Amino acid sequence: MGNKKENNFAYIDSQNLHRGVRSMGWILDFKRFRVYLKEKYSVSYAYIFIGFAPVNQKLYNALQEYGYILIFKPVVLGEDKEMKGNIDADLVLQAMINLHENKFDKAIIVSSDGDFYSLVDYFYTKNKLRVVISPYVKTCSSLLKKTAKEKIVFLDNLREKLEYKRKSTA
Q1: Model pTM?
Q2: Which of 37, 39, 84, 167 has its C-alpha lying 20 to 30 A from 29's C-alpha?
Q3: pLDDT bracket for residue 114 (50, 70, 90)
Q4: Is 1 a domain residue?
Q5: What number of CA atoms fall less than 13 Å from residue 8's CA on the CB side?
């Protein structure tokens, strides 16, 4: 192998990531996750697709400070009164624009959502998929598992490394 450092881009479905990790009973430390993406997968740009709500401004500032590129989507209240920002089309569009402009070597898709099946399949067949990172094996779409084949990892076993730990005030 040569010395050329890979230039990989991550595309993160923030709501899916957050909810998937939460369903396992822990909270993701986004700062540690950004370091993990850089060190493990040579991610130079990490796009995070997130619904915009002014109440979350501190979170957005922190994410930018950690090195994420935020792509906002207006939020709507779902039937369950939860905020929803459907980001699927935005994530696919950004990934395809970057592919078309030949900006990255490989893509990392962070989601368990089967709606990304076509994108993952396309990147896989074009040898542009580095990995799919799914928050939780039990909530990951079987379609996504099937198309990503051997290029899928789960955060289940990375809790120790990536869990947010509240700072003690003592």
Answers
A1: 0.92
A2: 84
A3: very high
A4: no
A5: 24
